[in-house]
Amino acid sequence: MSENDTKSDRIMTLSIAGGTGWAAEKVLACPHYHYQKYEMGWRIKKMPHPLAFGILMHDCCFVNDFDRFRTGWERGTILNDNDEPAWPIDRDEDAIEDDVALAEKMFDVFQKANLEIVATEERMETPIINPLDGKTPSHLEGVFVSGRRDMVEIYKGSEDLSDLKTAARQWPVHQASGMIQLPTYRYLEACLGMDVHNTGHYLPLTKTKKPVLQRCTVQMGDNDFFAVYTKFKAAAEAILRYRGDAKGKKKPAEAWPKTGPCLGMYNMLCQFHPLCYPERYDKPEELVNEKLAAKV
Questions:
Q1: Buried (b) or exposed (e) across 84-117, using 16+ Cβ within 10 A?
Q2: Residues 22, 244, 146, CA angle at the centre, nearest 5°?
Q3: Residue spans per domain, the chain
Q4: Widest CA span in the chain
Q5: What is the 3 state secondary structure string of the chain?
């Protein structure tokens, strides 16, 4: 991003968030989800247990300090960028000690792996750029892609991209094939003129009685640039189309299709379900007030 870019130039920013889902995929899967979260500003009041656990696990592993997990979990909130409590965790108060004990086992496994880490949690932001000509399509000027590159490590003498994952169980061999996260980081590297990594590793760290750290290696090439670009481009174009359709409507929400699936990550019903289908609930307004934060 150049120094001349300002917030006023922006039409939108598409984010990359591993555990919480990828903005481009979300809007393509269910435009109405995007509308509720990003256009209206709704969010759940308490961060789901698996997501919060993963965030704190990343934090303690990357700074080599398990107390970061213990303190956060016992406090029951995820900190914001100013190190102030910002988001309560949806956790079982009676299972706090068990959760901390499991996390400590996972931390020990990660430490014993002796990864040669070069960098972690690097924020990257770029306009959408077409790999064919190195330019941003004119109709997508002001659309940015933002995310945090999880990890760069030296593995067997090679500097590679890696992504740490907390997982309920060990991954099957084929799971990493076709995943978009590491290719997306690589696309951002190319857009920003950084050295591009051709090898990547997903590192699932299991939340099992005997935690295991797996290494699932993927090779990336030019086709991955186009796959990532195509998905971001499609998502941005969809958002612009739905925003245009919503203009002048008495009920702008109706311009954003409800295409589901409503049962999503962590096998949980979408948090916006009571907003989308209030007729399925006896007291939808009470449920919304209980589960969702006020509009931003």
A1: eeebebbbeeeeeeebeebbeebbebbeeeebee
A2: 25
A3: 7-243
A4: 60
A5: CCCCCCHHHCCEEEEECCCCCCHHHHHHHCHHHHHHHHHCCCEECCECHHHHHHHHHHHHHHHCCCHHHHHHHHHCEEECCCCCEEEEECCCHHHHHHHHHHHHHHHHHHHHCCCEEEEEEEEEEEECCECCCCECCHHHCCEEEEEEEEEEEEECCEEEEEEEEEECCCCCCCCCCCCCHHHHHHHHHHHCCCCCCCEEEEEEEECCCCCCECCEEEECCHHHHHHHHHHHHHHHHHHHHHHHHHCCCCCHHHHCCCCCCCECHHHCECCCHHHHCHHHCCCHHHHHHHHEECCC
| CB proximity list for 223: less than 8 A, separation 6 or greater | none
Q: Distance between CA atoms of 155 and 168, rounded to whole angstroms?
A: 25
Q: What is the number of other CB atoms lying within 10 angstroms of the CB of residue 232?
A: 23
Q: What's the pTM value of the predicted model, to 2 decimals?
A: 0.89
Which pLDDT tens digits describe the chain residue by residue (296 residues)? 333 344 447 888 888 764 444 677 888 889 999 999 888 989 889 998 999 999 999 999 999 999 999 999 999 998 876 666 578 999 999 999 999 999 999 999 999 999 999 999 999 999 999 999 999 999 999 999 988 899 999 999 999 999 999 999 999 989 998 888 999 999 999 999 999 999 999 999 999 999 999 999 999 999 999 999 999 999 999 999 999 999 989 999 999 999 977 886 667 788 899 999 999 999 999 999 999 986 65
Residue 293 region by backbone torsions, left for phi larger than 0, else alpha for psi between -120 and 50, else beta: beta
Residue owning tokens 């980081």: 185
In CATH, the number for domain 7-243 is: 3.90.320
